[in-house]
Amino acid sequence: MRAHPNTFTFAGHVRRLLSAGALLAVLAVAGCGAAGSGGAWQPGVSSSAPTPSPTEAAAVSLTATGDIILGNAPNRLPPGGGEGFFDEVRPELAADLAMGNLEEPLTVDTGTGKCGEGSTNCYQFRAPPEYAAHLRDGGFDLLNLANNHGNDFGAKGLQNTRQALEQYELAHTGAPDQITVVDVRGVRVAVAGFSSYAWSNPLTDIPAAKQVVTRAAEMADLVVVQVHMGAEGADKTQVKPGTELYLGENRGDPVRFAKAMIDAGADLIVGHGPHVLRGMEFYQGRLIAYSLGNFAGGGNTLSRSGRLGWGGVLKVSLQPDGTWDGGSFASTHLNGSGLPAMDPDDRGLGLVRELSAADFPETGAIFDDLGQISQPQPS
After folding, report:
1. How far is CA 346 from CA 215, 311, 331, in A?
2. Which spans in 187-253 are helix H?
3. What is the C-alpha separation between 142 and 130, in angstroms, rounded?
């Protein structure tokens, strides 16, 4: 690990994390091509207390979810202004670093919505900027903005989103050349977001993506890749080799991309985008979660039909050198208002277990009845 000359510090959630015995400080690095993605903002007060070296640190716990839509202003918002949006699932999200994929801007109407009059097969979303408070109150620490809806209201909408998250002391990642580094109990975790769109790190240019991950590995002990990849739909649960298309768009080659990122230094791949759960596999001892499904669709902005209504919370524990230290998957579903709720029937777990075994017979993650994850034994 080496210092980077263009870092800035953010101490977020200090009171909550200190009460849990953990200090969170965020360092984000944005290249000059990431307009509005970084700046020398410094809300909060950093602790001057020394942190242990990585060799002294215990394993780091990470939680991650799939797609999050808080609502669609002005007419499709959750009841009560979204109060208690994540209350039912918050205990499952608890970790040293809780991450989600924010699938919409948090902005006023900028007048630059992507769907013009008469558009077909076009969906645009936005939630009020103050809805960032629901993410904070739900326990999230970092949101990925690299996805197909991040730019629904243009560059100004993206800028407003970043400002809203920062106002509520939430970190973000996903802009071109942006690497967000979180210091958790002496272990530095770098997170970078990828998608097939110009406002993010590149999904379809694998050599360029590898350069981002290689740089992240030089900056941190652990590297997490957040990636919006794969075709969409209720019938898109299976992972197959090759490039996936959706409405003519190249949505990447999920298997090739994920393994290339691990070869470049990533320790965990968190996938989302298909709006359904997909299987998980291990590669070089690192977990690849190909899609975590729909986690939240406030105001019923996402379909709750069948598998489209299933999601989950992935929890992973990693040693400071990236060694697997355990994990679990907890099933969720969208309730009648599109809010995330725990699924007592564990339908998501059953599906992920089935898909992991079918799509990756030799490398698939193994799940017990409680959702605990283990690596397959070498044959």
Report:
1. 39, 10, 5
2. 206-219
3. 16
- Cα angle 310, 122, 158 (rounded to 5 degrees) comes to 85
Residue 150 tokens, joined: 């991040």
pLDDT per position as a tens digit, 85-144? 999 999 999 999 999 999 999 998 888 787 877 677 778 879 999 999 999 999 999 999
Q: 113-116 contacts: CB < 8 A, separation 24 or more?
A: 113/152, 113/153, 113/154, 114/151, 114/152, 114/153, 114/154
Q: How many residues does the chain have?
A: 379
Cα separation of 26 and 21, whole Å? 17
Sign of CA dihedral 201, 198, 124, 36: positive
- Phi then psi for residue 218, to 5 deg, are -75, -25
| Phi then psi dihedrals of residue 35, to 5 deg | -60, 125
| Per-domain boundaries in the chain | 9-34+61-113+123-374
Read off the pTM: 0.87
Written as one letter, the residue type at 220 is A
- Sole residue written with tokens 């759960």: 277
Query: Is 9-34+61-113+123-374 assigned to CATH 2.60.40?
Result: no
Is residue 128 reached through a cis peptide bond, with omega within 30 degrees of 0 on the bond before it? Answer: no
